[in-house]
Amino acid sequence: MKRFSRILFYLRSQRQNIVLYVLSNLFSVLFSLVSLAMLAPFLQMLFDAQLPKPVKPEFAFTLTGISGIKDWLDYAMGLLIVKKGKIYSLGVICLMIITAVFFKNLFTYLSFRVLAPMRNFVMTKLRADLYAKLLELPIGYFSEKRKGDIISRMSNDANEIEWSVMSTLEGLIREPLTIIIMLTVLVYISPTLSLFLLVLLPVTGFIIGRISRSLKKQSTISQETQGRLLSILDETLGGLRVIKAFNAESIMREKFFETNNKLNLVRNHMNFRKDLASPLSEFLGVAVLSCILWFGGQLVLGNQTGLSPGSFITYIVIFTQIIPPAKALSTAFYNAQRGSAAIQRIEEILQTKAAVTDAPDAISIAGFQKDIRLNNVSFGYDEHIVLKNIHLTIEKGKTIALVGSSGSGKSSLADLICRFHDVTDGEILIDGVNIKKYTQESIRRLMGIVTQEPILFNDTIGANITLGTDITDAKKIEQAARIANAWSFIEHKEMGLEENIGDRGNKLSGGEKQRLTIARAVLKNPPILILDEATSSLDTESERSVQDAINHMMLNRTSLVIAHRLSTIRHADEIVVLHRGEIIERGTHEQLMNLQGHYKKLVDLQAFS
User: Fold this and answer.
1) How many CA atoms lie within 13 A of 12 on its CB side?
2) Which contacts (CB < 8 Å, 24+ apart) does range 60-65 have?
3) What is the spatial distance between Cα 456 and Cα 468, in angstroms, rounded to a whole number?
4) What per-residue confidence (pLDDT) applies to 322?
5) Contact partners, residue 224, CB within 8 Å, separation at least 6
6) Hey, which of 171, 263, 532, 539 would disulfide with 225, CB 3.0 to 4.6 Å?
7) Facing residues of 74 across strands?
8) Can you spell out the DSSP letters for 301-366?
9) What number of CA atoms fall less than 13 Å from residue 129's CA on the CB side?
10) What is the pLDDT of residue 49?
């Protein structure tokens, strides 16, 4: 049950519904038992030529229950037959069976009505917690994971839990309740025969358990393969242009088919074992039933325990009602093995500790007043050094540019300031206070980010511009779009700000996408701007429009600019040159050109190209 601890935790708030569910199943089983119990007087009436003597039995409580229940039933039926006759009594029995079956099914329906909201609540809570955890985890976590695998855990694994585990929990309440009550009645009817039965049942349970053990391992392999399949699909959809351009369709097709065939093989083996549960349990149940017929028949024929033929037939009929819940219980056990693998994969995400967290006494920073300082900052992961001994001051209102070759640590330095990661050594101060003492939300509220690849969402133009703000004033949105040089194309859209831009903004050109991200940053109106190679992927004409928008946006703001095209940062207050994670040069454009160092080589290379 440890595997299901999270689900049981969610169910703690559903105690009232759980009680109603148990009571509904209890009454359903009891009314089912009443309908079966009426078979005894029915059979006795058909096969016993003599009328039962209506002798009133004694009523007493004993350790084994209420004594003489059957005698009381015989007494009541005998009185009815004496007064009304057999035909009338037969009608009463049939009416009682119909009534009992009606209430049995009524309470069964009520149990489903109670269960459905509980199951949906658990799955809604699980998905919500999983999504919240994904938002909480650091950016570095996702660079180590396949996107398709994460999507698979969010969708397929969650569905597996819903249909395997939740149905298992349902069976673990209803089926054992049915079996226990039926067994109790069987013990009451014939303790000797029931003792023989209780010896046989553990043997059948052991056989089923042995066969189902490998299901968890196979289910884990299935879910991992499904994740790889989704990753291939995601890569195919995102890189379809490149796949076609390089005639790589056959390579991707073979890669997908190989993974798909492996998934098919694993799932077949899983289904072979899962589908074995019901027929195997039914066969074992019939085998046990045959043993009971053989052993019980000897007791009746030998009249050794006072078990009458009518009671024995009732015993057999009640025992047959144990077989369906036993089958369901074995199937639920098989499903639990499958579902536990899905729970384990989801738990891996939910139990992952966030590398960046707010301190218990973290405060909110109200505004940016003075400067950002990096004191002897180093950063690395998995024994790989990204930044080393960085000393840097970004004064309010100044523009600082970071340049260097790919992999020199420019983007990592910007991520540290936004606290997407925490420094390995040293400290980062905003207005003289370590950023670890501020809440992450308040730090990021001060910053606007424009990345190299425009990140947009499948929503309207207006929704993408207002992302993260509560601004609804169309005039303010339009003003931000004008500053970003985006209004010129927005106003020509059929629905203007309400125009949907498609998945990742694929209805827009590259320049239009980037200008929307700038408009988003402008509307936020942050005191600190971080521009991560915002124009490097654009053509010359789009770059000019975007650069003009950036220049407007940078007015009277503190800016950290990561530049690939050095011509865009000539007028920065300070240019910092990074190489292999260390600052090797710093100064204005003219100062660095006079040094005749690494920066001049970069400028000359770009001028030459």
Assistant:
1) 6
2) 64/188, 65/188
3) 13
4) 76
5) 149, 345
6) 263
7) none
8) HHTSS---HHHHHHHHHHHHTTHHHHHHHHHHHHHHHHHHHHHHHHHHHHTPPPSS---TT-B---
9) 18
10) 46
What residues contact 62, with CB distance under 8 A and at least 6 apart?
A: none
CA 579 to chain centre: 42
pLDDT at 305: 62
What is the spatial distance between Cα 383 and Cα 395, in angstroms, rounded to a whole number? 32
State the DSSP string of 368-405.
Answer: --SEEEEEEEEEEETTEEEEEEEEEEEETT-EEEEE-S
Low-confidence ranges of the chain (pLDDT < 70): 1-4, 39-75, 77-78, 165-170, 201, 204-219, 238-242, 244-246, 274, 277-278, 281-282, 285, 303-308, 310, 327, 330-331, 334, 337-338, 534-543, 545-546, 607-609
> Distance between CA atoms of 227 and 148, rounded to whole angstroms?
5
Nearest-angstrom CA–CA distance, 54 and 288: 37
Bridge partners, 559 (sequence order): 399, 529
- pLDDT one-digit tens code per residue, 545-570: 667 777 777 777 888 988 877 777 88
pTM (predicted TM-score): 0.70
Please state, in angstroms and rounded to a whole number, the distance separating the CA atoms of residues 72 and 78.
10
Dmax (CA) of the chain: 124
Q: Specify the pLDDT at position 62.
A: 47
Residue 24 burial class via C-beta count within 10 angstroms: exposed 0-12, middle 13-18, buried 19 and up: buried
pLDDT of residue 205: 63
Q: Which residues contact 13 (CB under 8 A, 6 or more apart)?
A: none
212 vs 197: CA distance, rounded Å: 23
Distance between CA atoms of residues 538 and 98, nearest Å: 78
Measured torsion, CA atoms of residues 288, 292, 293, 295, in degrees rounded to the nearest 10: 130
- Reported residue count of the chain is 609
Give me 205's structure tokens: 């349970």
Separation between Cα atoms, residue 182 and residue 24, nearest integer Å: 16
Tokens of residue 32, six digits: 């089912």
Task: Tell me the average pLDDT of the chain.
Answer: 79
Q: Could you please report the per-residue DSSP string of 59-89?
A: -EEETTEEETHHHHHHHHHHHHHHHH-HHHH
Gap between the Cα atoms of 427 and 444, Å rounded: 17
